[in-house]
Structure formats: structure tokens, C-alpha cells
Design brief:
Helices cover 34% and strands 28% of the residues. It is globular. The chain folds into two domains: 2-175, Ribosomal Protein S5, domain 2; 183-318, Alpha-Beta Plaits (2-Layer Sandwich), CATH 3.30.70. Strands 1, 2, 3, 4, 5, 6, 7 and 9 form an eight-stranded mixed sheet that branches. Strands 10-11-8-13-12 form a five-stranded mixed sheet, with helices on one face. Mean pLDDT is 86; it is low at 56-66 and 301-312. It is α+β, with helices and mostly antiparallel strands. Strand 10 (269-270) and strand 11 form a beta hairpin. The protein has helices at residues 55-59, 64-67, 85-97, 119-134, 141-151, 195-204, 218-227, 231-237, 243-249, 251-263, 284-297; strands at residues 2-5, 9-27, 33-52, 69-74, 103-108, 164-168, 172-175, 183-189, 239-240, 269-270, 277-281, 307-310, 313-318. Cytidine-5'-monophosphate binds next to strand 3 and helix 6.
Length: 322
């Protein structure tokens, strides 16, 4: 997350994330699941802006209570009401710090929704950090991370400032240093998946919470491979508990994964509860090359505005080949 001052207010960039590893260890008494994940921020950003209004000016407009705090969303059809996690974050911070906000918060979406790329969670984390500065609240990172955990399981991760192992519901963070800069190609198909439904599918299937016990430690092995720059082996050591369940129920995604694997021998892994898939590449050049090949096979890869590229990898959006 990057927060900066602008001529009219404050601005924050909220990165997307990928799950390089996701293991569902079991179901807890509170209904949530115990997780073990390796998450990594990637250079695809939503943008948040805060502009303060002059309180006196607002005071004389009608309907002061609704005019006082405005929230808008551009770039996608996600809601701009109380159900939006960024809006929830703004209200939580205002209530906690006793601030009466006068101004407008706007969100420009670039991270696809229901993709497993953490867009909503990242927006919430960036909102907390942005408004913490804009409103002069000055809470510590630790206190903000505590508020983040109240908003959603993946929100605290975005305060780690880099790749992190996340345990518990996702809120117990262990930042990881010494990992190399990685290059990915990410494909978000038209199909979308809700996290809640993915957990329900997992529980309805053959998921056995005990299966993880007594196994080798695949996450430690993955971290070691990444640290040693053994990327071919690292790509193969990436895994996701949701993947086989989602692939079994959505053959269209299985076909996407097969296409990606055919073009990139390092394979393709689903992020979060889907539906985006990513392939690890050795260099930026390799990522560009793979992105080009994938564009050629994805049905609407040439559609104007459908392609996005970002610094450390490539993000493609398109219809799954049938
Ligand atoms: O925490 P968050 O609101 O993002 O979670 C969304 C849904 O995903 C929860 O309602 C729950 O069904 C499921 N979930 C879970 N275990 C987790 C995280 C999320 O069961 N560790």
C-alpha cells in the first residue's frame, strides 16, 4: 500500500495478491477454517482518493447527513454502499477514532472481483491507512492491523508490506524476507467464484481436515525453493486446497488451466478460492512471451481495453477457451 498527498487530498494504491500456497487445515468451532497460506502482493492496483470538504460549506447544503461523507466507485459494478468493504473500513475507523468525516472517498477498481486476488480486502486495508493519515488519526500499524482483522480474514495481510505466511483465519502474519522478485502471468476468466461458496463446496466434497496431519512440510519446502531461486521446482510445489474441488465443478476452468499448462511447462495454480489462475515465469521477458501466447488462444484476448499489464507480471482478462 502506498499513501501519498495530492493537491486536493490523499491517494492510496491498493495492490492485488496471489496465493502461492493455500492449505485448508480444518474447520473451526466458530465456522471459519484454519488456514496456512503464502500470499504475495502483485503490481496491479486499485486506487483510492480522499478529498476533504470544507465543513462550513457542507453545513449549508441540504441533507447534510448524506452530503457529509460521499463514497463512489468507478471501473466496475461493485456496490458503492455499506456492503463495500472500503466503506466499512471508513466507518470502522471513524467510529473507533471518534472522527466525523467531511469529504469524499472514491475508489477506482482495476483488480477483478471474485478472482481470489484480494481486491476488496486490499481496498479495505488501503482505506484504513489512507484515512488514518488524511484524518490525522495516527494509529500505529499494529492498531490498524487489529481493525483490519475485524473487516475480513485477508485484510491484515495487506499491512505486511510484502510476501507473508498467513495462518489462523488468515490474520496471523509472518512476513517473509529474502524472496526473489517474481514474475507471473495471471488470467482472470469470466467465471467468478464467491469465497463462501468455495468453502461450502470444499466441505460438501471429500475434504478431510485430518489429511494435513503428519505430512511433510510443503510450505517450508516451497519457501526454501523460492529463497534459493529454484523456480521450476517452486512452481511445482505451489498448491491450493480449493483447486481440485473448483476444477471438478467448473470444467471450463479445468480447460483454462490445461491451456496455461500446455503453454507454460511450469504449470498454473489457482489463487485464493478462484477464479483467477497464475503461472510463475523465470523472467519478465518469459512472462511477456507467455502472456502473448495466452492472448492468442483466449477468445477475446484482442478486445480493446481487455488487457492489462503490470510491472512484475502480466494480467490478462478473457473468456475461457471452449
Ligand atoms: O473473513 P471473510 O469475511 O473474508 O470470509 C468470507 C467467508 O469465507 C466467511 O464467511 C467464511 O464462510 C469463509 N472463511 C472461512 N475460513 C476462513 C476465511 C473465510 O470459512 N479462514
Amino acid at each position: 500500500m502506498f499513501v501519498s498527498r495530492t493537491t486536493v487530498g490523499w491517494e492510496a494504491l491498493a495492490p492485488a495478491k496471489l496465493n502461492l500456497y493455500l492449505d485448508v487445515l480444518g474447520r473451526r468451532a466458530d465456522g471459519f477454517h484454519e488456514l496456512e497460506m503464502l500470499m504475495c502482493p502483485v503490481r496491479l492496483f486499485d486506487q483510492l482518493r480522499w478529498t476533504s470538504n470544507d465543513r462550513a460549506e457542507i453545513h449549508f447544503t441540504e441533507g447534510e447527513s448524506t452530503e457529509r461523507f460521499r463514497f463512489s466507485v468507478a471501473g466496475t459494478d461493485v456496490p458503492s454502499d455499506e456492503t463495500n468493504l472500503a466503506m466499512k473500513a471508513a466507518h470502522l475507523l471513524a467510529a473507533e477514532a471518534g472522527v466525523e468525516p467531511y469529504g469524499s472517498l472514491s475508489l477506482t477498481k482495476r483488480i477483478p472481483t471474485q478472482a481470489g486476488m484480494g481486491g476488496g480486502s486490499s481496498d479495505a486495508a488501503a482505506t484504513l491507512q489512507l484515512l488514518n493519515q488524511a484524518w490525522g488519526v495516527n494509529y500505529s500499524k499494529q492498531r490498524l492491523t487489529g481493525l483490519a482483522a475485524q473487516l475480513g480474514s485477508d485484510v491484515p495481510f495487506f499491512f505486511a508490506g510484502g510476501p507473508a505466511v498467513c495462518r489462523g483465519r488468515g490474520e496471523i502474519l509472518q512476513p517473509q524476507s529474502g524472496l526473489p522478485k517474481l514474475h507471473f502471468v495471471v488470467v482472470k476468466p469470466d467465471e467468478s467464484i464467491s469465497t463462501k461458496e468455495a468453502f461450502m463446496q470444499l466441505n460438501a466434497g471429500q475434504f478431510d481436515p485430518q489429511k494435513s496431519e503428519g505430512r511433510e512440510k510443503p510450505l517450508e519446502r516451497l519457501l526454501e525453493l523460492l529463497r534459493n531461486g529454484m523456480l521450476t521446482a517452486a512452481a511445482k510445489a505451489m498448491s491450493n486446497s480449493f483447486q481440485s474441488v473448483i476444477l471438478a465443478s467448473q470444467p471450463i476452468l479445468a480447460s483454462l488451466q490445461a491451456q496455461m499448462t500446455a503453454l507454460n511447462s511450469w504449470g498454473a495454480t489457482m489463487t485464493g478460492s478462484g477464479s483467477a489462475f497464475f503461472g510463475l515465469c523465470g523472467t519478465a521477458q518469459q512472462a511477456r512471451h507467455l502472456a502473448g501466447k495466452l492472448r492468442a488462444v483466449l477468445e477475446d484476448g484482442s478486445r480493446a481495453g481487455a488487457k492489462h499489464e503490470f510491472g512484475e507480471g502480466h494480467y490478462l482478462r478473457g473468456k475461457t477457451p471452449r
